[in-house]
Amino acid sequence: MGLLEPKDLVFEFSMRRLGPEALRDIPEEYAHHWRVKITGRQLDEDFDEVDEVTVGDAEAYVIPDAAGQRDLFLTLDAHSQDLADVGEMLQIIRPDLLEALAESWGRDLLYVSYIELDRAHRGRGLGKAVLEGILDGVGRYVGLVVLEAAPLPGDDAAEEGSLLHRSAKRSLARYWSAAGFEKADGDWMYQLV
Description:
By secondary structure, this protein is an alpha+beta fold. The protein is 32% helix and 31% strand. A 7-stranded mixed β-sheet has the order 1-2-3-4-5-7-6, with helices on both faces. The relative contact order is 0.15. Helix 3 (81-93) crosses helix 4 (95-103).
């Protein structure tokens, strides 16, 4: 079996959402919360299709018309601490990014909460292809993408602040910089689309 390439990826998107009438008074439901399952079509030497293999998963939020929100921080804070952190970074630390978003064609914000690839599929640039797949699938009106270049916490993760953890953060920052992202603040990175 050969190595997976970006063209072999298959994306399955899911979102659960309240109806429009219910959304008017529930700010925590304002962000469109997407879960993404990523698989790949593994081909053999004869190019016969074999079963799909699990590649990883991702989570992203689309915040409609983020630049037009009077108080993005409070809106996102009603949802979760993760989104509140995004709102704080954009509205308090880097309001210039919201201004750039307001002037762009796309007015939605895409926050990529995480992209996690199985170990067998890391190190070949598939993360960039996954981000492109997410943008293509749910980011039609996105003008700004934000992510945190930090390893996911977990049982096998390096202890936060350790040499291994700091090294992983630097590696992720280099990876996303090569994909066109710029440093926003701390581990936060952004890309105007």
